[in-house]
Amino acid sequence: PTSIGILACELYIPSLYVEQSALETYDKVSKGKYTIGLGQQRIAICSDHEDICSLCLTVLSRLLEQTGVHPQQIGRLDVGTETLVDKAKSIKTVLMQLFTEHGNTAVEGVDSINACYGGTAAIFNAIHWIESSYWDGRYAVVVMGDIAVYAKGNARPTGGAGACALLIGPNAPIVFEPGCRSTYMTNVYDFYKPDLSSPYPVVDGQLSVQCYTSALDTCYAQYCLKAEMNGESRSKTSSAAADNINLSTFAGIVFHTPYVKLTQKSFSRLYFNDILRACSYIPNALVEKYKDFDIHSSANDKDLERDLIEQSRELFGQKTLPGLYFSQNMGNMYTPSLYYSLFSFLSSQPSEEQFYGQRILLFSYGSGLASSMYSIICRKVHDTRFTLGEIQKSIKRARQELDNERIELAPELMDKLLLEREKHDHQASFIPSQPSEVLKPGNMYLKSVDKNYRRVYEKF
Ligand code: ACO
To answer: Residues that bind CoA, according to the entry (predicted)?
Structure first.
């Protein structure tokens, strides 16, 4: 199979949100700390009818409905999450109810878990299955989602929630570029969830940002080398010259997005890497100015950071900002965050033609830590209904929901909901009791948890 990639997608938009400006007042922090300092506008909230399984069931059933793909046509389903409702039973097995009712029990794959990286791990599994001798010609599906909640304190405004389902297969309009992938993994305690009874992580926020930044630097250096080597081997077999890989190679650069401001800093960091590599698109004056700097010792230099943000502002506006619409208005979604950024970017131009031939660079980060950088390329497809235009339509439906169909909550109500979630998260038995107006027709929701912790979901 060739041109393996994303054929279709569905995104979940939780129906409740809180304005970050209202949260600033409620938390008694200085005006602008969350909206300017973190760059966030709104935070998505879930009611007690929504848990991680209901989010995943909803996007998966919508993907099947919208694409018309029969459940029998799916041979692999991978799930990425860090929102656990059970230590043994995977979310994948809960999602099997959508397949078994159509007589399909032959679906490979289970859950991948490592903080915000699980969705990327799930995608890599799906790609590798299709590339392997075990592939049986059917589609793969990746579902990823999280309800990201933090204990009261400075991390709480960086919470959020979301889930998405991706149909993966050959002859795709969004292709994973073969061979173009770098990985950096190491053992750190920046963000982790050792208390299995609590939905909240233990987080060292400043350390997590440092770890994110060094993972970014390392992945980018390695990605450029690998992609250049790939280009060289391609150019031996064709007349095309090997490319020098840098930010100008890509139409879009999208990041795992804990909060918008971190992506602006990350973009300027990649720009700094390109300055130190004296890439041809960088003005000579900048290469000269920074010729004595090195990438590692400069990580805590605030003046440098400010200058780099200024120097790269225009490019950031072109290549990353169009990918931040969902994140800015929903918050950190953990595993699907990077993919909401990709989809936000892909819906930022009115027509699909504008993306043909364009490459987009993706950086995935999960604390603990696991990180990868890879790229996709958009293409015009033939003899298939899975086009970029159809993908754009489903993203636009999600944007429409985001803009027009959400209900605003006061910050004190958010606190109340989170307190209730803490209490009910692992309670048996439990019947959700918050107002059901937040549910949309067609959504799957949690109906009950019985005394043996068995969860029942129904379509609303
Ligand atoms: N107006 C404008 N800017 C302001 C204001 C204001 N009134 N007040 C503060 N700021 C700026 C600060 O100067 C700072 O800017 P800087 O980042 O350029 O230095 C920024 O807002 C944030 O303020 P801090 O005081 O640094 O914020 P704090 O330490 O309270 O919290 C943190 C930030 C650590 C990121 C916290 O939200 C957190 O722990 N989040 C969760 C962890 C996280 O998301 N990590 C990222 C990678 S790992 C992952 O995805 C989970």
So the answer is: 154, 208, 261, 265
Q: How far apart are CA 413 and CA 49, in angstroms?
A: 16
Predicted model pTM: 0.97
CA angle 62, 327, 251 (to 5 degrees): 95
Distance, in Å, from the CA atom of 347 to the CA atom of 146, rounded to the nearest integer, reads: 22
Domains assigned to the chain? 5-459 (3.40.47.10)
What residue ranges line ligand 1, CB within 6 angstroms? 30-33, 36-38, 116, 154-155, 158, 191, 203, 205-206, 208-209, 212, 258, 332, 367
HEC states along 236-280?
HHCCCCCCCCCHHHCCEEEECCCCHHHHHHHHHHHHHHHHHCCCC
C-alpha 190/C-alpha 201 separation (Å) is 10
Asked whether 331 and 18 are in contact (CB, 8 A), the reply is no
ipTM of predicted complex: 0.99
Size of the chain in residues = 460
Q: In 3D, which of 146, 190, 183 has the Cα closest to residue 367?
A: 190
